[in-house]
Structures are given as C-alpha cells and as structure tokens.
Write a structure and sequence with these properties.
The protein is mainly alpha-helical. The protein has 7 helices and 4 strands.
Length: 190
C-alpha cells in the first residue's frame, strides 16, 4: 500500500473554477454610491475597491495550499501541469504589464525574477560567456580523458563520458534570455 497523504485534488476540473474565482476576486469590485450609481475617479475611470495584484502565493492560497511550493509541486503532476502553468502565466503576464507602470515596476521585477524561469535582473555579460566557454572546454577535456579510460574497458568511464557530453551539449545550446532591462526602455547596445 502506498504511503503519504492523499492528493488534494483528483482532476484539473476541480481547480479550474477556483483559479477563475481567484482572478475574478483580484479584479475587485466597482464602488457605487448610496443611489447605486458607479463612482468615478478624476480621470473618469470607475473606482475599484478590493482590487489586488494576482500572485503565485495568492493563487496557491486560493487553491487551499499552505505554500507556493505546494502549488509548484502540484504543477509537477502531469494532470495538473497545463492548468497550473496557464494560471501562473496569467500572473506572469500581469507582472510583465506592471513593468511599464512606474508605480509597480519594482514589485513586478522582483516577482518575475523570483517566480518565473528565464527572467534575470542583470544583463548577460561577456565574462559570463567566457566562463561558460571555459566550463565547456573543461568538460571536453574531461571527456577526452574518460574516452581513453573507456578505450581501456572501464565501464564507469563510459557512463560518465556520456553524461559529461550531454551537459556540454546543453551548455552550448543558445537559449534566449529575457532580460528585464529590455522592458524598462534601456537599449541593449551601450
């Protein structure tokens, strides 16, 4: 018999409604006066009360988890992957939009860097590229040594050589880096 706590949810449909309700609640409600008329601000926009930014932790709490880590663990389950990833993408999109808002850019930056892959608050430097090249060269040298051992019949060396080669191949692949500076109007060329 398998141990551990039973899953909180059995299907993605159970959480989809809760996710929708969370984002609806984040929008807040339109303020109305005593006559039931909508109250507008000086810019002519309806005044919203109870509005708050959607966050990964807020989403986790709305789904009944105690921590954002619990939500991330559920995202690792195949049946919940797409649903939770989409909800997190909605939080990420909100944070991206706040990068263009003078009042919310610092909080948005913090959220993007700490909650979502591919965001960095420092531009990629030439030193980073040199360090990466040095690591690749080192792995290649280690692979050559292991190839020699492999040729002599050392079976452990075969497995290690294959793993090092896989890592070197991964490091050589160019991945786009979404640099947060690009969203603040700063150019890449300096």
């Amino acid at each position: 018999m398998a141990g551990g706590r039973p899953p909180k949810y059995e299907s993605k449909e159970q959480i989809e409604g809760l996710i929708e309700a969370y984002f609806k609640k984040c929008e807040g409600e339109i303020l109305k006066d005593d006559d039931g008329e909508v109250v507008f601000d000086k810019s002519g926009h309806p005044v919203m009360i109870g509005a708050r930014p959607p966050t990964v932790t807020g989403l986790a709490l709305a789904l009944g988890f105690n921590t954002r880590t619990s939500l991330l663990n559920y995202q690792g389950k195949k049946e919940f992957l797409d649903t939770i990833t989409r909800a997190k993408s909605m939080v990420e999109a909100y944070a991206e939009e706040r990068l263009f808002d003078r009042d919310g850019s610092n909080g948005a930056r913090f959220s993007l860097v700490n909650n979502f892959r591919g965001w960095s608050d420092r531009p990629k430097s030439e030193l980073d590229e040199q360090e990466q090249k040095a690591r690749i060269d080192s792995m290649k040298a280690q692979t050559e040594v292991l190839e020699e051992k492999k040729a002599r019949g050392d079976s452990c060396a075969v497995a290690i050589a294959e793993n090092i080669q896989i890592l070197a191949d991964i490091l050589q692949e160019s991945r786009p880096n979404r640099d947060i500076q690009n969203y603040e109007g700063e150019s890449d060329a300096e």
